[in-house]
Design a protein that fits this description.
InterPro entries: GlpE_sulfurtransferase (IPR050229), Rhodanese-like_dom (IPR001763), Rhodanese-like_dom_sf (IPR036873). Pfam families: Rhodanese. This protein is an alpha/beta fold. The protein has one domain: 3-Layer(aba) Sandwich (Oxidized Rhodanese, domain 1). 28% of the residues lie in helices and 13% in strands. It is built from 4 helices and 5 strands. It starts with 8 loop residues before the first strand and ends in a 16-residue tail after the last helix.
Length: 115
Amino acid sequence: MVFGSGIPTVGVDALSSDDFLLDVREDDEWQAGHAEGALHIPMSDFVARFGELTEKAPEGGRINVICRAGGRSAQVTAYLVQQGMDAANVDGGMQVWEAAGRPVVSADGTPGTVI
């Protein structure tokens, strides 16, 4: 689904556990709670660490980008789309993820929380 901004967007409810998720929040946010299996590259390090994404993203698969509420992930999604990649911003971010009852784990693997 594409909204007026022209940035592809996906709802949390449309994602399955098999979908590739890129979390662009900062380290403290990640450590407090994140979606299990997500790749973590903070937005502040994104351009420098772009190679990690290209190594780990599924070939030809969509990259679902998430942050706390959707602002930072929208910027990263726009960048990825400009690079010709299939990317979508996760609408509402980790706040909606957690509210929807999706699992959130901390850095040590125990149940986490979104900060």
